[in-house]
Design a protein that fits this description.
The structure holds two protein chains of two kinds. By secondary structure, chain A is mainly beta. Chain A has helices at residues 3-17, 147-154, and strands at residues 30-40, 44-45, 56-60, 63-73, 78-85, 88-96, 103-110, 113-119, 127-146, 162-164, 167-179, 184-194, 196-201, 206-210, 214-224. The longest helix of chain A has 15 residues, at 3-17. Classes of the chains: A mainly beta, B alpha/beta.
């Protein structure tokens, strides 16, 4: 079992032991959710700066990882949510004039996001659609190159590396919860984030990349009270 | 309850921090196919030091680029050509010349015995053509250098001869040739066209001289028309005998003086200006007719050259198929011909000649592509496209000059006047680190890196790198 999944189990356990009196999604309720989230970047890549083959672009593959979110009902309808998760690992592949190179590298990203949400219908409704608006802070870590990246940037040179700038972006969310019982519910949500970053290669070249990821997740949630601000 | 809140916050942070260190890494640098060796056939663009002997070595030359590690001057001046860069990327030893030597003027240090080097598979030689053993710089062309110019067909045969008649199958094979077929044919065409132009100029000049002289000499006669007819007959008779211009002139004046009423022309004071005028007319006509005839000759011969390059392209494709792939090679990279018309040499030519160069290269590359179509063990790298794009769109490539050589090719600085003897000590002044060309046709180390990257792109895409 990995370190990360262990941490998530601890979190889940922490949720289940919280005092769980009959808790519909009324003001003062906590909504903890645990599920799977797939992040698919919708990449609009700039060209790698000179010296490069004109039109050297990048694409980024999707990744699916566990997701944890905790929301707090400020009123029966307004809530604040924090989305967390383990780092996503995205493959970087060649595009544009270097289309067909396949994987050139990978990078991990942690995109914690804070939302203000509006949840429709009464607190005890079976089906509660909601919308949210928030801020994502994308932190890029462990960017890794490859022989292929080196050969395209600086054939025969030292292994090429790259670094992505950490960036904040605006996220919009649309989702819904389905009541299972007073405590348990299902949650499905789609988040679109506007996110632009810059790649800095060890060769001195740079590249602007608009990632604009779409995140889609399905989670199981638990309502509980007892932690009041 | 405060405790729980704290616990959750702490756990959230733990998840965030769970990733550990974040420094970028170069990652896995192993290539997708593990090659046992690199075998390279071709010409100066791939030559790793065939002529790095005798005076060439003494002049700190040897390769057809800016020679030597001059990274102290600028990081781009590595002295390495594209085959060396790709070998390094593939994790293979630095390539070495399979044969060295020079067969030129011994008094200038250009006569060094041929030596074959075991374990060296850099067969490419400056001046080499596809099948013709005499390329630019070969002693048979009158060159003092005496480049060996072993053609690609023989280079391949030499490799087969030392390796049991076959490739092992796990070599990466590079083929890049045909450029010298273009240059050699062009240079021959240029010489032949100049000769044709000179001959035509002399003929037209002579005719114009006589016409002018006759009309001037006849003008003072009682019957100018009749006199002109008689004078012209004398001049034509003299010319037909093959007499020199002085004799023709003398006899023409003699014939003019005996025409009725025309005795005055026998006086030097009278005929001298006439001769001067006629000479000017003849020179003008000759100067006008020579280039026209030369161009006409070149135009007539153009299709012959295009056809010759088409043949060379087909020969190279056949060589790759029957002597390389059919003999066991599984990984063959064939570079097509670059855009020669945009090299400094090409740019110095007339528009007609550049069009001819393009037609020749197009014929060669077309035949090469057609000949290797559907050949899964060969990758054709479209060097023509990228070199043309570099010439017309240099900025994204980081090129600062695509029209002039980086090397000082004056005789005082570079006795051979080529990149073969260019090094960090005889560059042009100023920053030439990102020039395209070292000399009139050969790329700088920086441009070699651009080529290596372009070849790499094809190899990565093919799944070989």
């Amino acid at each position: 079992m990995t370190k990360t999944s262990l941490k998530l189990l601890v979190l889940a356990a922490a949720m289940s032991v919280a005092t769980a009196a009959s808790a519909q999604q009324t003001a003062g309720t906590w909504l903890g959710t645990l599920g799977m989230n797939k992040i698919t970047p919708k990449v609009d890549s700039g060209d790698v700066s000179a010296p490069a083959l004109p039109g050297t672009k990048a694409d980024v593959e999707s990744d699916t990882k566990p997701r944890f979110a905790i929301a707090y009902m400020l009123t029966d309808n307004w809530s604040a949510e924090l989305d967390l998760g383990v780092p996503y690992k995205h493959d970087l592949i060649g595009a544009g004039s270097i289309e067909g190179t396949g994987k050139l590298g990978d990078a991990m990203v942690l995109p914690p996001t804070a939302f203000i949400q509006y949840r429709f219908f009464p607190a005890n409704a079976t089906f509660r659609p909601y919308v949210g608006l928030g801020v994502t802070y994308a932190m890029f870590i462990k960017e890794r190159g490859s022989a292929q990246l080196t050969s395209i940037l600086n054939t025969g040179g030292p292994g090429a590396t790259y670094k992505l700038d950490d960036k904040a972006g605006v996220s919009a969310q649309i989702g819904a919860t389905w009541r299972i019982d007073d405590n348990w519910f299902l949650d499905a949500t789609v988040i679109k984030t506007k996110l632009k970053t810059k790649v800095h290669f060890s060769t001195g070249q740079t590249q602007d990349v608009r990632l604009d990821p779409v995140a889609a997740s399905i989670s199981i949630g638990y309502n509980f009270k007892g932690l009041s601000f | 309850m405060r405790h729980t809140k704290l616990a959750i916050a702490a756990m959230a942070l733990a998840v965030l921090a769970g990733c550990g260190g974040s420094s970028p890494e170069a990652g896995d640098q192993t290539v997708r196919v593990k090659f046992s060796s690199q075998v390279s056939f071709g010409d100066s663009l791939s030559d790793v030091g065939t002529y790095n002997v005798g005076t060439v070595a003494a002049l700190k030359g040897g390769k057809f680029t800016i020679n030597g590690d001059n990274t102290a001057i600028n990081a781009t001046l590595t002295g390495r050509n594209w085959t060396e860069l790709v070998a390094a990327q593939l994790g293979l030893p630095a390539p070495c010349a399979a044969m060295t030597g020079l067969e030129g003027d011994a008094s200038k240090g250009f006569s060094v015995a041929r030596v074959n080097h075991a374990g060296c598979y850099g067969y490419a030689q400056g001046g080499a053509r596809v099948t013709n053993p005499v390329g630019p710089g070969n002693a048979a062309t009158g060159s003092a250098l005496g480049a060996l110019t072993v053609p690609v067909v023989t280079q391949v045969a030499n490799h087969l001869a030392i390796s049991g008649g076959k490739f092992k199958g796990d070599e990466i094979v590079f083929v890049m040739a045909g450029g010298n077929d273009v240059l050699f044919q062009l240079s021959k065409l240029s010489a032949d066209a100049a000769a044709a132009g000179t001959a035509a100029g002399i003929k037209a000049g002579g005719e114009a001289y006589i016409a002018s002289l006759v009309s001037q000499l006849a003008a003072g006669a009682t019957d100018p028309a009749d006199a002109a007819k008689n004078i012209l007959a004398a001049a034509t008779a003299a010319a037909a005998r093959g007499a020199s211009q002085a004799v023709i002139t003398q006899e023409t004046i003699g014939a003019a003086a005996v025409q009725p009423g025309n005795g005055a022309v026998s006086s030097q004071a009278v005929y001298s200006p006439m001769v001067a005028t006629a000479t000017a007319a003849g020179n003008a006509a000759g100067a006008a007719a020579g280039p026209v005839a030369g161009a006409a000759y070149a135009k007539a011969q153009g299709p012959v050259l295009v056809e010759a390059l088409k043949t060379a392209g087909t020969e190279l494709a056949t060589l790759v198929k029957t002597q390389i792939i059919a003999k066991g090679a599984n990984y063959v990279t064939v570079n097509n011909l670059p855009d020669v018309a945009t090299t400094p040499s090409g740019r110095s030519q007339s528009a007609e000649t550049r069009a001819l160069i393009n037609a020749m290269i197009s014929a060669f590359n077309g035949a090469l592509s057609a000949g290797l179509a559907g050949e899964s063990k060969a990758v054709i790298v479209d060097v023509f496209w990228v070199s043309n794009d570099q010439a017309t769109n240099p900025a994204p490539y980081g090129l600062t000059n695509v029209t002039e050589p980086a090397c000082d090719l004056t005789a005082a600085k570079n006795p051979l006047g080529t990149a073969l003897t260019c090094n960090g000590g005889n560059l042009k002044t100023g920053d030439v680190s990102h020039y395209s060309f070292a000399d009139e046709v050969h790329p700088t180390p920086y441009n070699n890196l651009l080529l290596a990257r372009y070849v790499s792109r094809s190899l990565v895409t093919k799944g070989w790198l």
